[in-house]
């Protein structure tokens, strides 16, 4: 117990860029760890990149097929015999409220890997994850590690605007992914929970490059401003519509799907203001949920919006996709929504919400005729239900 308290205190006192060194020193002293490495998931969600100093010599690892990647996917620690001697490597998920940040790998001498020690190592990994999120306000170290190539300016703006890539609670789990991860410009997602309700938005700003990012940034900021003022969902859409129109005067607009979920009942309010689509997997049945289409934000002055109702049932999976997904053409010109999207939902049904969007986007990339993926977004929402109902 004392070691765990000391670890938390040491991390809070550490310089933002020195969290790994602090953990390494602590684990060597407390458990005899002979090596400690931190790997962070990259923006594309396909690679674990090392957070070691250059002299560490460790390279990036694929998430698919590596022991570290399997630990990330299962969210359970995995053991691996060290290449030489009898030491054991422990791959520990670094996750904060469902957001899969990376993997902490700790090598312990033979005989030191007791259940009590492993439980403490899991807590260290959790503490480290929280401190990384705090430290990112003051250092670029962890942001740089996540990049296997340079982001465009537009993508930089979009990733800085996002809440996280996953979030979970007792009633639900959410995961989302943008592609192309290093060059996305207009697509965006957002969420917020206050304990009683969860608000989700899926946004597709028109245009290309920085112009699209600036447009989306304005829309998302206006939606957040309205949401934090405590107004209803339809009024959030109306206020964001006014903000976008006031700046662009109808020359540009933003397609947005807004949802608010009552966490006690699973009842939803939805405003469909544009192109993002909602699909539902219930049991073995997949269907697109047709909504009352309303004007995109900023198209006309003082547009009025109305929310419609929808109820999710325990076990439901909702998938929200931008036009870069459902309109993706095959070499024969068949759109992804015309059969392939439903198959992808079935194929990924056993994946957690945090992992499903990336799998769907990889399927889209293989499906489409062009070599590169258009701006595309997938958000997955799993509803577990509320036992208190």
TrEMBL record:
SMART domains: PP2C_SIG. Coiled coil: none annotated. Pfam families: SpoIIE (PF07228). Residues 50-88 are annotated as: Disordered. SUPFAM superfamilies: GAF domain-like, PP2C-like. InterPro entries: Bact_Sigma-Reg, PPM-type-like_dom_sf, PPM-type_phosphatase-like_dom. This is Serine/threonine-protein phosphatase. It comes from Streptomyces nigrescens.
């Amino acid at each position: 117990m004392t070691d765990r308290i000391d670890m938390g205190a040491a991390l809070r006192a550490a310089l933002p860029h020195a969290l790994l060194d602090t953990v390494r020193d602590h684990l060597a002293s407390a458990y005899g760890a002979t090596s400690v490495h931190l790997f962070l998931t990259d923006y594309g969600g396909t690679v674990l990149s090392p957070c070691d100093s250059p002299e560490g010599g460790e390279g990036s690892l694929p998430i698919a097929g590596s022991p570290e990647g399997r630990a990330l996917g299962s969210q359970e620690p995995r053991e691996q015999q060290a290449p030489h001697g009898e030491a054991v490597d422990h791959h520990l998920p670094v996750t904060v409220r469902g957001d899969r940040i990376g993997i902490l790998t700790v090598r312990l001498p033979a005989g030191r890997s007791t259940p009590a020690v492993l439980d403490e190592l899991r807590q260290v990994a959790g503490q480290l994850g929280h401190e990384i999120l705090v430290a990112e306000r003051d250092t670029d170290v962890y942001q740089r590690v996540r990049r296997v190539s340079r982001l465009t300016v537009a993508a930089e703006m979009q990733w800085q605007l996002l809440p996280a890539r996953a979030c979970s609670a007792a009633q639900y789990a959410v995961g989302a992914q943008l592609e192309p991860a290093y060059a996305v410009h207009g697509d965006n997602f957002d969420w917020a929970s206050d304990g009683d309700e969860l608000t989700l938005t899926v946004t597709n700003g028109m245009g290309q490059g920085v112009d699209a990012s600036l447009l989306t940034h304005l829309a998302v900021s206006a939606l957040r401003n309205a949401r934090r003022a405590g107004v209803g969902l339809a009024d959030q859409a109306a206020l964001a519509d006014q903000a976008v129109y006031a700046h662009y005067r109808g020359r540009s607009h933003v397609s947005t799907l807004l949802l608010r979920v009552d966490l006690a009942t699973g009842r939803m309010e939805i405003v469909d203001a544009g192109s993002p689509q909602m699909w539902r997997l219930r049991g073995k049945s997949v269907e697109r949920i047709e909504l009352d289409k309303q004007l995109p934000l900023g198209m006309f002055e003082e547009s009025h919006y109305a929310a419609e109702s929808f109820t999710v049932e325990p076990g439901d999976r909702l998938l929200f996709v931008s036009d870069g997904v459902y309109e993706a053409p095959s070499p024969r010109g068949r759109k992804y929504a015309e059969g392939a999207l439903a198959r992808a939902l079935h194929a990924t049904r056993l994946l957690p919400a945090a992992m499903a969007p990336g799998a769907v986007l990889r399927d889209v990339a293989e499906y489409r005729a062009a070599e590169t993926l258009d701006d595309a977004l997938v958000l997955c929402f799993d509803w577990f239900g509320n036992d208190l109902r």
